[in-house]
């Protein structure tokens, strides 16, 4: 059962543009399940922590998005962020994307 | 076709080296994202939802076999094995890694290609009729003029920071507009005046996006020698008066329609009269030299080909259907212009795998004088095929999933990448196109010519405003909804479609399109196409069919 809406920090990895998720402690995960979820009140602090560090930062376009925990999974709220997290909803030929 | 000279090659190599240094400095943290972003965009490199996206320019949609093989190599080596042909006759790659981009651009440069000016507030790819030079309908081949404009406009120092992007299209066909000229910031129709001289009718202020307009006539007849001077005058007026305070009001269409075409014309003519034209007047020898690069290939004598084709179409109905919809009259006897559909029903429109590109490159080399065109409908064209070779071509295309006989029919849908890839999109386009394509394919011959165009946001990359049926994806409180327009057209009868009413949920789009088509079929007379029936009967019956029972 889904819990209440929380927030996480996401961006795109500088080297290859892959969506990444801030895991705390200076670490980033390419899986949304690796994200650090926080209550909305702590979200700005999490973003500030993600933006700290030596240049270049590992991710660009960092922003806060809404997500919920569903059991062991973390699922973004919006369709846009679901598609970023889990890949396009379409395939080309026999090659599945995402 | 135009081949690079030593200057072009050296310039491009230097540009790649420059970008290699910029990428290295970015990855080393010496350039911030704010500093780097305009540099990568100037090379066509965007950052989208899943990765970097590279848009590669295909000048006026013309490719050699070697270039198409080069694009296949990029798809296989640097992407996930495919590319996406766009409505600007370009190609995009959706899964690019920044760190590999310098090597990618170096590989592209080997086949005389790049991504310069496929982004940013500058001139974008010059587009034209994909049948240029091979259709009997045109006054002359427009591609030399496209090439002249390309050379003038690329990295033009005065126009490197325009208020907004600027798109130019050129067409020389007198009956049919296959280049959507009236939907461009500046459109050129090659025309003959009363004295028999050939020149340009100049249109300005067309465009789609959130505020769609058709272009208006700026100059009824412009002598050829004055082309660049007049374009420069028009761009100077835009550069001076175009808005830079509001991105949504920065395109030249807004300036033209706020000033009024008379005032715009007066400003451009005054600038044109005052400017020194010596350096911009086109010497006939220079034009002839460029024209020579577009000379027709050495066609074979194909006198017996019509009889051969007639026999083969009579024997094989599936082949006959493909010939009917996917081939067009060629100016050379015994030859055909062949459209290769990149719209197999149920697949993403405009996508093409590396293997398919390589096959098409081989076929072009063998059967079409090594030349390929890209259409703004996201299909490919082999422009010079002997009719006696069509059957063999069809079989080989069919084996690779490239023989959908649907050009101009309901499943030949234009769709932007939409929310599956694009950072600007508000809804998905491709899944809607897939569902509609599969659903309509079975009855598309009975429906007849029908242009369905789908955009995933108001920026209108899928040209929905000018679809016979246009579909615009919207986000309504987190749900995908689709606004439907009808009666649009991008050809010689160009028109902006009218909104039918409230947007419909994604699941209801197929049924809504069915109702619009059924209404059209019930009302059409004497072979009318959809927009003609719409113009005759108006919105009411379509609106009633869509919304009455809801």
Describe the protein in words.
The complex is a heterodimer of chains A (98) and B (550). With 98 residues, chain A is an alpha+beta fold. Chain A is built from 2 helices and 5 strands. Chain A has a 5-stranded antiparallel beta sheet, sandwiched between helices. In chain A, a hairpin with a 2-residue loop joins strand 4 (59-70) and strand 5 (73-76). Chain B has 550 residues and is of the alpha+beta class. Chain B contains 18 helices and 21 strands. Chain B is globular. At the A-B interface, helix 2 of A face helix 14 of B.
Produce the secondary structure layout:
The complex is a heterodimer of chains A (98) and B (550).
Chain A: E1 6-13, E2 19-24, E3 27-29, H1 43-50, E4 59-70, E5 73-76, H2 79-86
Antiparallel strand pairs in A: 1-2, 1-4, 2-3, 4-5
Chain B: H1 6-27, H2 33-41, E1 45-47, E2 52-56, E3 62-64, H3 65-78, E4 82-85, E5 91-96, H4 101-110, E6 127-128, H5 143-153, E7 168-171, E8 186-192, E9 198-204, E10 216-223, H6 227-241, H7 252-259, H8 261-274, H9 284-292, H10 305-315, H11 317-326, E11 327-329, E12 335-340, E13 351-353, H12 354-367, E14 371-374, E15 380-386, H13 390-399, E16 414-415, H14 430-441, H15 444-447, E17 452-455, E18 469-476, E19 479-486, E20 498-499, E21 504-505, H16 509-523, H17 530-537, H18 540-547
Parallel strand pairs in B: 6-7, 7-8, 16-17, 17-18
Antiparallel strand pairs in B: 1-2, 2-5, 3-14, 4-5, 4-13, 8-9, 9-10, 11-12, 12-15, 14-15, 18-19, 19-20, 19-21
């Amino acid at each position: 059962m889904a819990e209440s809406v929380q927030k996480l920090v996401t961006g795109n990895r500088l080297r290859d543009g892959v969506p990444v998720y801030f895991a705390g402690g200076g670490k980033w995960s390419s899986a949304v399940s690796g994200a650090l979820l926080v209550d909305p009140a702590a979200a700005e602090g999490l973003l500030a922590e993600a933006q700290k560090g030596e240049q270049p930062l590992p991710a660009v376009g960092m922003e806060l998005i809404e997500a919920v925990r569903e059991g062991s999974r973390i699922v973004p709220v919006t369709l846009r962020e679901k598609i970023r997290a889990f890949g396009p909803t379409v395939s080309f030929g026999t090659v599945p994307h995402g | 076709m135009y081949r690079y000279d030593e200057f072009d090659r050296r310039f491009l190599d230097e540009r790649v080296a420059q970008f290699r240094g910029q990428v290295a400095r970015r990855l080393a943290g010496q350039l911030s994202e704010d500093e780097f972003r305009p540099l990568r965009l100037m090379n066509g490199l965007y950052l989208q939802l899943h990765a970097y996206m590279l848009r590669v320019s295909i000048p006026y949609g013309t490719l050699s076999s070697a270039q198409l093989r080069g694009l296949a190599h990029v798809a296989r080596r640097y992407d996930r094995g495919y590319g996406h042909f766009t409505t600007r006759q370009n190609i995009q790659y959706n899964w690019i890694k920044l760190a590999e981009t310098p090597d990618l651009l170096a590989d592209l440069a080997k086949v005389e290609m790049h991504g310069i000016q496929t982004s940013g507030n500058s001139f974008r790819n010059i587009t034209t009729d994909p049948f240029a030079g091979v259709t009997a309908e045109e006054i002359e081949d427009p591609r030399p003029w496209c090439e002249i404009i390309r050379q003038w406009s690329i990295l033009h120092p005065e126009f490197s920071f325009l208020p907004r992007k600027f798109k130019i299209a050129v067409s020389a066909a007198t009956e049919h507009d296959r280049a959507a000229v009236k939907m461009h910031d500046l459109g050129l129709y090659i025309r003959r005046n009363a004295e028999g001289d050939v020149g340009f009718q100049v249109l300005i202020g067309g465009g789609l996006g959130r505020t769609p307009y058709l272009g208006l006539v700026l100059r009824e007849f412009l002598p050829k020698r004055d082309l660049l001077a007049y374009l420069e005058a028009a761009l100077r007026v835009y550069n001076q008066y175009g808005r830079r305070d509001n991105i949504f009001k920065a395109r030249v269409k807004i300036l033209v329609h706020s000033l009024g075409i008379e005032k715009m014309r007066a400003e451009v003519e005054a600038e044109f009269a005052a400017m020194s034209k010596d350096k911009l007047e086109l010497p006939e020898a220079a034009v002839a030299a460029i024209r020579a690069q577009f000379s027709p290939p050495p066609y074979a004598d194909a006198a017996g080909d019509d009889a051969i084709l007639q026999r083969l179409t009579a024997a094989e109905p599936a082949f006959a259907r493909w010939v009917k919809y996917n081939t067009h009259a060629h100016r050379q006897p015994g030859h055909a212009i062949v459209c290769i559909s990149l719209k197999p029903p149920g697949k993403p429109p405009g996508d093409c795998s590396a293997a398919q590109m390589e096959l098409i490159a081989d076929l072009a080399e063998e059967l079409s004088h090594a030349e390929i065109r890209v259409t703004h409908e996201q299909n490919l064209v082999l422009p010079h095929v002997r009719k006696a070779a069509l059957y063999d071509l069809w079989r080989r295309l069919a084996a690779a999933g490239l023989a959908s006989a649907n050009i101009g029919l309901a499943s030949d849908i234009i769709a932007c990448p939409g929310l599956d890839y694009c950072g600007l999109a508000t809804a998905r386009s491709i899944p809607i196109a897939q569902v509609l394509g599969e659903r309509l394919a079975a009855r598309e011959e009975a429906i007849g010519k029908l242009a369905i165009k789908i955009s995933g946001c108001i920026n209108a990359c899928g040209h929905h405003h000018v679809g016979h049926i246009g579909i615009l994806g919207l986000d309504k409180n987190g749900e995908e909804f689709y606004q439907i327009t009808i009666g649009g057209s991008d050809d010689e009868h160009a028109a902006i479609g009218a909104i039918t009413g409230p947007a419909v949920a994604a699941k209801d789009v197929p049924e809504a399109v069915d109702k619009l088509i059924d209404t059209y079929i019930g009302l059409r007379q004497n072979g009318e196409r959809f927009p003609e029936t719409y113009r005759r009967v108006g919105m009411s019956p379509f609106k009633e069919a869509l919304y009455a029972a809801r």
